[in-house]
Amino acid sequence: MRHILLTAMLLLTSACAGPLPAVDPQQAWIDLATVPGNVLMADRLDNHPVNDGRYFQVSPGEHDLQVRLQFDVPSGGQDGLAELQTRTCRLQLHFPSFVAGQRYLLKAGQQGYRPWARLYDSQQQMLVPGKTLRCGSI
After folding, report:
1. Helix (H, G, I), strand (E, B) or coil at 11
2. What does the radius of gyration of the chain's CA atoms come to, in whole angstroms?
3. Given the DSSP bridges, would you call strands 28-33 and 103-111 parallel, antiparallel or unpaired?
4. What does the domain layout of the chain look like in residue ranges?
5. H/E segment holding residue 9
6. Which pTM does this prediction carry?
7. Do the Cβ atoms of 91 and 133 come closer than 8 Å?
């Protein structure tokens, strides 16, 4: 079992090690950002799985973006010592007017146990907030 889990983890991380594809000027590009220690991955575009969780590249117009955010939170431990537990949350952002050739930034993080996400344009103006679909521990 341990061997299977290790092999799966290596395959997943090797997909992230390659270079990003060239930016298509006919599409909008969405970078992802979070604080160190958190993991933020693109998950679904218009309810379809994405091939590479490091970014979104979308056609102009309206789209739904879903991301997975993982972060550590304290949990009750023995002897009153807090242990860390990984919390995984799925967040969704809906934006009606992506523009071809434009770069956007999807930032996500957490305040305590609550995740947040926001979409920004290239001038760092917030366009839309995200909403939490669900959270749980892994």
Report:
1. helix
2. 17
3. parallel
4. 25-137
5. helix 2-17
6. 0.82
7. yes
